[in-house]
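Hi there,

I know you've been waiting on this one. I reran it after we fixed the sequence typo, so this is the corrected version. Both the input and the resulting structure follow.
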Amino acid sequence: MSDFDHSLMNKPARESWLGRFQVFWLLLITLLAILSRVYIQRLIPNTGFLELPLLLVVYFGLMRRSQIAALLFGAFVGLVEDSLAPDNLPLGMNGIAKTMVGYFAAAVSLRFDVENVAIRLVLSFFFYLFHAFLYWVMRRALLAQTVPFDPQKELLHGVLNAVVAVPLFLILDRLNLSPRSE
């Protein structure tokens, strides 16, 4: 009997229940983040810069360390966000951008110690800028829209999102929503 067969036979049933419980909470928090992205701007002015769904995609990619799972999670988050967005952009713009972010976050997590707060801060900043730039390029290239890209504003929004990401990631760590796959 191989080690793989032995681990499958001795797998506790409680682990699968815990996994389903984590998936439920992850989906609930994700839907709350998407709804907050869509509706929080109406309740609290000047919060349009806050990208909670993107930060969840980054967190999931960094902590899960599975490129396929992060890619699918990013696509799910982006498509749901697109379907609820009040603007008239085609479905899939956020889906493509968040899919790329999830994939690259998981790829980066294989190289760096993502438990470090400073690394998380820098990666959150970088992935926000990557997402903003990719979204801008797609709007120009795919939709032929002339949309301005203000680097100063995007840098400021990247810093603000990175600052929000650090305590958010610590809270998500405490909830243990995305166990690392080794």
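Quick highlight: The two ends are 22 Å apart (CA to CA).

Best,
R. S.
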